[in-house]
Amino acid sequence: MCASFCSGTRILTTRGRVRVEKLRLGDRVITVDHGPQPVQWIGHRIYSHAFLRLNPNGVPIRIQVGAIDDGVPSRNLYLSPFHNLLIDGVLIPAEALLNGSSVSYCKELDPVSYYNIEVPMLAVVLAEDMPAESYVDRGDRAMFMNTTSVEMPPGAKASGSRACAPILESGPIVDRVRARIALRAGINPPDIMERPQDGPLLGTVEWADHHSVSGWAWLPDHPDEPVVLEILDKQEVIAVALADQHRSDLRRSGIGSGCHAFHVELPRALDPMQSYQLVVRRAADSHPLPGSPFPLDAHGPSEALAGLDLAAMVNGADLCETRRVIAWLEQQAVKLHALLVDSQPLAGIMEDLNETEPRIRRRAVESLKSSKLA
User: Coil, strand or helix: which one is 217?
Assistant: First the structure.
């Protein structure tokens, strides 16, 4: 079975995220390596559940939201087992990442409708914000239903059978990626705690906030082994991280291979109204990482709201859901206004509103003009 996306998968294009089955020839998809590129061929095939019972290699794989990295993929991603994903500079088949939890087979779809898209060169597209290989003709074009009606612009050529990055199905790099995905899913690889973790611990906690923690950690005595770290709040382990992400600055500084950084999104955001002392330590012996504990100051309500991106939260939602969000915001505005009335004399409030309203109206008009809607 060749590499394909399941119907419903959103592909990033110059006109936004578009479901793969809605793409048309000539649409310009955003590629990681070559910028916007026109779609020159779209393949389509459909398999029934009965067929897939006899041909398990065609059963799609589901990669859950955030399974690979923070916000990657941005929605559950469904694709064929041999579809190559670009991770840490190499292409890894989805099948090689199976862990039975955050990356697993999806046998509920019936029928399974597969699509793939070809652009003028070997490229990586963004499917639900996950970098994934575009169609590469490896002699399997005949598997698609529309293979007899291939349409290509004048002068366009098939992509060929090579790849835009090394393809790895196993080995140390794949093992590191699998271990990182497993830790994000709360799964400890069977041998992770059996690997050497003793000796001096170098590194630092570089950044922490109420949502994430970042830094690097390295074992000079075991330069190729990633450090397993625990993140604690008040003696409670709230996250586990594997320091195996590549950073060129670490490599240039002589810190092993450079694959010793970590960035972890906390499974539950900390209360921004409270202060914390986050501790990052080596899981094997509770040895603290330099820079730990990392203090977090409490924020006021306005500071907490400043980082709230409502547009991003409702991106991709249907009209009804967006309207529910707007209705909830209107309710909160009424409640806040009631609090304001209780805390200030009415005359003072009206004076504030009289001064504020023209500014709001002026900004709204400017915004409309800038978006060419006025």
Answer: strand
In 3D space, the residue among 205, 204, 209, 207 whose CA is nearest the CA of residue 297 turns out to be 209
Amino acid letter for position 154: P
CA torsion, ordered 128, 133, 138, 140, to nearest 10 deg: 0
Q: pTM above 0.90?
A: no
The CB-based long-range contact list for 149-152 (8 Å cut-off, 24+ gap) reads 150/41, 151/25, 151/41, 152/40, 152/41
Model pLDDT for residues 43-67, shown as the tens digit of each residue: 898 988 888 888 878 899 999 999 9
The one-letter amino acid at 326: I
Residue found under tokens 């409640």? 335
Residue 295 in contact with residue 270, Cβ under 8 Å? no
136/138 Cα distance (integer angstroms): 6
pLDDT value for 157 = 47
CB atoms within 10 A of CB 367: 11
